[in-house]
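Protein modeling request. Please complete all fields; requests missing the sequence field cannot be processed.
Requester role: graduate student
Desired output: 3D structure, token encoding
Chains: 1
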Amino acid sequence: MPKHPGLIALLIQAMALTLTGVLAVAQTAFTLSLFEWSIVQGVMAGIVSHATRMPFWWILIHLAFAPLIIIALTLDISPAWYLAGFIGLLSIYGKSFKTQVPLYLSSIKANQALESLLPKQEQFSFIDLGSGCGGFLTHLAQTCKNGLFCGVESAPMPFIIGKLRSLFNPNCVMRWGNFWKQDFSQYDVVYAYLSPVPMTLLWQKAKREMRPGSLLISNTFIIPGVPPHQSIKLNDFSNSTLYLWKI
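Delivered output (247 residues):
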């Protein structure tokens, strides 16, 4: 079975749809509407996703997917709206399906914690991997004038918003692109708010490129098998923790 959760979900939906179709054709004891059969399909998909230990939100998606399609078809909505919705989501989330890194927004508490960690006098360089709409980065740039801040974002809409924000901060720059192609050796602090999926690869890149004495900071997600040198509970809306590794 493929490792990507999106492909696993697709296989589960196809399996549940096939089983539901076979059941609908084979049985003669009762008659269900198309919507009711979609509920049966959703329940089957939910059971299979639970059995394969998919995260809880995937189970909810499987349960609701087919019934929502049937409901949407009955509403007689123009296909143009679906296209507009798809383009809108693509502009916000970019390649999240491929990278498995959704759009996370760092909290004010994360800003405050980093302000206390960053140098107060000497110059330093800071990169935010997947900087989103740039609010976190531009706030740091405004409060830490001795730092040079760089944000990298690949999703179109967040990048445009972040780029506009950075125009008002001379010590802050937003770059469009893939943060995996950035050279970490140019920075004193590397900040990431990603997902559990890329953390091992991030650590390998950090060990390979970051200078001795530089700092890798991850919001919420740990590096498997590598204990952090320090952790800071933020007590924010998502109960986040900052994990710090000194290179």
